[in-house]
Amino acid sequence: MSKINILDQSVYNRIAAGEVVDRPYSAVKELVENSLDAGATDIEIYIENGGKQLIKVVDNGSGIARDDLKSAFLPHATSKIANVEDLDNILTLGFRGEALASISSVAKVEIISVTDGNPAYKIACNGGQIGEILPASLGKGSVITVNNLFFNTPVRAKFLKDEKKEEADVTNFITRYILSKPSVSFKYYVDGKLTLNSFGGGLDEAVAQVYGAKVLSQCFKIEAEKNGVRIYGFIGNQNFFKPNRTYQSTFLNGRYIVNNTIAMAINQAYSSYMMKRQFPFYVLNVDVPSDIVDVNVHPSKADVRFIDNKFIFKTVYSVVSSVLDGTARAADFVLNETRLPEIKSETDGNGNENKIYCQQAESSEDLAKILQKYDKSSSVEDDIKAAGIEIAATSHIEQSKLNQEPQNVSYFDPLKDISLSELIPKQQSNTMCVTDDTMPPSLNGNIAAYEVESRLFNKKKEEQQKIDYVSCKYKGNLFNTYLIYEVTDTVYIIDQHAAHERLIYDRLREKLAKRDIARQALLVPYIFTANPAEARFLEEKQPLLRTMGFGIAPFGFESFRIDEVPVDLQDINIKEFFDDILAEVDGLKEIKIEDVLKDKIAMTACKHAIKGGMQLTEGEIDALFKLLDGNMGLKCPHGRPVCVTLKKKDIEKMFKRIV
Questions:
Q1: Residue 131, CA atoms < 13 Å, CB-side half-sphere
Q2: Contact by Cβ (8 Å): 27, 100
Q3: What is residue 625's three-state secondary structure?
Q4: b vs e for 309-335, b when ≥16 Cβ sit within 10 Å of the residue's Cβ?
Q5: CB–CB of 253/292 below 8 Å?
Q6: From CA 92, how far away is CA 255, in angstroms rounded?
Q7: What's the CA gap between 106 and 175, in Å, rounded?
Q8: How distant, in Å, are the alpha carbons of 211, 261, 489, 527, 528 from that of 555?
Q9: Residues paired with residue 283 on neighbouring β-strands, in sequence order
Q10: Are 169 and 24 in contact (CB under 8 A)?
Q11: Which pLDDT does position 460 carry in this prediction?
Q12: What is the pLDDT of residue 572?
């Protein structure tokens, strides 16, 4: 008896549907791409209940002839390619012939279409069952309606997100089409309400429609032809960054893609300008010869493969870095000369010329250090402003306050002198111009790694490395920095600064987590705009943010209003705080205020901890060791170990007592 079954068409169509149409946004994607391939210049998209109940796409394209209507629902039926050679020169968005067959196998689909000089016809397909062709009424193009997506595959329907999340994903893809096809007019309706409306007026208009007109003034508009590759679009300037990657769009030959080679090239070009957890803004089109790229990688067509990744990387990197660095070639690449980078230079005492880059200071302390490098005369301040960089009125700037020595704090009870507001950056611009040799140091990105590591591994590791500190004997210190303890056959060498820094850090986090929340109303509410992915994320996190003391509510389309903040954080820089929140837009972990402010807490802990080289009394050494409570596996907030150990056996090996 045969055990190999030849699957029925209805079965393999549903299997294929799992690859091509897994969510409402993928159904919208396939239908919109069919409209674009049909030459449509006006496209209307309608969804209801996140696309689960209704998806409708109306276009003014070339339409489908009567004789092709039934074939449109068949698998591997396409007008885009005819033979295997066509796969090497794909110029359309769709080409597999799987979209309509897959969608109609898991939904109720109706097509109304008309071609020039012919009457209109319609056809329906319910769950893969194709109906009859009937006369219809339509002036031009096609109308495709998808009802009850996954009505006959309840298992798939069960794994869909809620309506708002599905809607946000559809909205996100519509914005990509507005950006990738700026000459096409799009109208996008959600539950009967017009949500997005572009007019086909070009890329400038499309970017302004999606991100707001203010974005244009913060970007370079570029167009370059290099090595047979055309690169054009908008890239953010050296000071324009976003808290996550949702503001990055790459289009290859008009197709939206997610490609590591291009993304890495752009990030590398920005690397000398970005600070940690910042991401460049770009809407970039890359046109390459079709014979050096394979778009036939996956049914979603979001991934592509290049014949030579190094060639693509080098080409993209050289164009973007030339614009950002202000090289001679930048004038050839930037379309609007007023957006060319203003990079000043100065000559040091040896006659060497140093570039001046626009850079953001991490804190008011960093800002003070940078300012001290400059003559405080107004002429220097004018030069800095002439470079296009705004300096906060308070930055020149309460110099007497910035130059004061830090307040002396008791070694072992720093919290009594640290208010919660001290953990929050004030609302002032920390943007400055600095030279190559005065670039402010940063916390080198280890904090995020430390947080992940501590959550997953360190708790168990610390418990394993915990010792009975009462039995330890103090044996002295090295360089007034490293405290030496002995117990049985083990020597513990403790970094006094790292140990104290970690203790303060943990106590500050605990204080933030346990504080009583009182709210302070803002005289003028803070209003900001988010993209679809961020808006969905904030709507989901609204209850959590309110429990943290923030009054947050939607304010128009994808905008939010903040009208209350916690009293003990009333000096908070709201933009920076929500940038940190939105940095987790793709993350899965729960948001906690002590996590959002972890960098500031770490900086405060470092500032108030005893320093290396500081001579401590025996009482202070004993107090610090007791506070560690035997936890020898701790790490400081920057990831450095608090303690290292040496075994007697290791020391005896050093002196060749044993082999």
A1: 16
A2: no
A3: helix
A4: eebbbebbbbbbbbbbbbeebbeebbe
A5: no
A6: 9
A7: 26
A8: 16, 38, 66, 8, 9
A9: 234, 249
A10: yes
A11: 52
A12: 77
Please answer whether residues 94 and 32 qualify as being in contact, where contact means their C-beta atoms are separated by less than 8 angstroms: no
Tally of CB atoms within 10 A around 654 = 9
Kindly provide the b/e burial profile for residues 540-578, where b requires at least 16 CB atoms within 10 angstroms of the residue's own CB: ebeeebeebbbbbeeeeebebebbbbbebbbebbeebbb
Residue 241 phi/psi, 5° resolution?
-135, 160
User: What is the distance in angstroms between the CA of the first residue and the CA of the last residue of the chain?
Assistant: 71
Instruction: Take residue 445 and report the two structure tokens written for it.
Output: 């990105």
Nearest to 181 by CA among 35, 60, 306: 35
Q: What is the rounded CA–CA span in Å between residue 635 and residue 641?
A: 4
- Strand 229-236: give its sheet, edge to edge: 219-226, 229-236, 282-287, 248-252, 255-257
Give the span between the Cα atoms of 107 and 420, in whole angstroms.
55
pLDDT of residue 47: 96
Angle between helix 618-628 and helix 496-514 axes, rounded to 10 deg: 50
Query: In the predicted model, what is the mean pLDDT of the chain?
Result: 76
Q: Are 157 and 148 in contact (CB under 8 A)?
A: no
594-621 pLDDT, tens digit each: 777 777 778 878 888 899 999 999 888 9
- Helices in 421-567 by DSSP H: which ranges? 446-453, 459-464, 496-514, 532-547
> Alpha-carbon distance 652 to 659, whole Å?
9
CA dihedral 417, 419, 423, 424 (to 10 degrees): -140
Question: Quick one: which of 177, 215, 226 has its CA closest to 45?
Answer: 177
366 touches 440 (CB < 8 A): yes
- Give residue 133's Cα distance to chain centre: 48
- Compute φ and ψ for 319, nearest 5 degrees: -70, -50
- As a whole number of angstroms, the longest Cα–Cα distance in the chain is 100
Residues 6+ apart with CB under 8 A from 555: 527, 561
Do 47 and 74 touch, CB atoms closer than 8 A? no
Residue 560 near residue 528, CB atoms below 8 Å: yes
Amino acid identity, position 499: A
d(CA 106, CA 101): 9
User: Residue 96 phi/psi, 5° resolution?
Assistant: -80, -25
- How many Cα atoms within 13 Å fall on the side-chain side of residue 334? 23
130 forms bridges with which residues in the sheet?
Answer: 125
Res 376: pLDDT:
37
Count the alpha carbons within 13 Å of 78 in the hemisphere toward its beta carbon.
Answer: 22
Beta carbons of 433 and 356 less than 8 angstroms apart: yes
| pLDDT score recorded for residue 589 | 61
pLDDT for res 359: 39
The H or E element that residue 130 is part of is strand 129-130
Could you give the count of Cα atoms lying within 13 Å of 6 in the half-sphere of its Cβ? 0
Contacts 24+ apart (CB under 8 A), 72-80: 72/100, 72/111, 73/100, 73/101, 73/104, 73/109, 73/123, 73/125, 73/130, 74/101, 75/9, 75/12, 75/13, 75/16, 75/101, 75/102, 76/101, 77/101, 80/37
User: What residue ranges of the chain have pLDDT lower than 70?
Assistant: 1-20, 75-97, 296-302, 336-465, 568, 586-590
SS3 call for 561: strand
Q: How far is CA 495 from CA 480, 533, 610, in A?
A: 10, 44, 10
Q: Supply 404's token pair.
A: 């004061």
